Amino acid sequence: MARKTAAAPTVADIMMKPVLTATPDTTVAEARRILMDSWIRHLPILEDELLVGIVSDRDLRAVRDHATPLSAIMRSPVFVLSPCTPLKQAVRLLRDRRFGAVPVLDGRRLVGIISVVDVLRELNGRLSHLLRRRRDTAAPTG
Fold this sequence. Notes:
By secondary structure, the protein is of the alpha+beta class. It is 38% helix and 18% strand.
């Protein structure tokens, strides 16, 4: 009897959704408040529902004038992933390009964001599961 293998995990399996976003007119002060209140570090910028940029907490800390609009500091163009991108490929991208997070688009629609924190959370869950299985199979039966 052949063993059933689980499908390889994809970005859709661990991405965060819904995604908090801002507009190009949002000020640095407003964006900082969004990040702090929500415990996130990356904020995609949408204009007419299209992704036009992204900012990180590091980008925001570097700006002295908190009235600056995000359009002046956002990173654009933005590297994106598809929900069906294999997780292994996404992890390699985050590592090799040193990205903290990457927005996830389905066509032109923002559907999620994947970050290094999401990957670490997934890895922690998988390691915990593996260690439990190993401990359970090693436990003597009495």
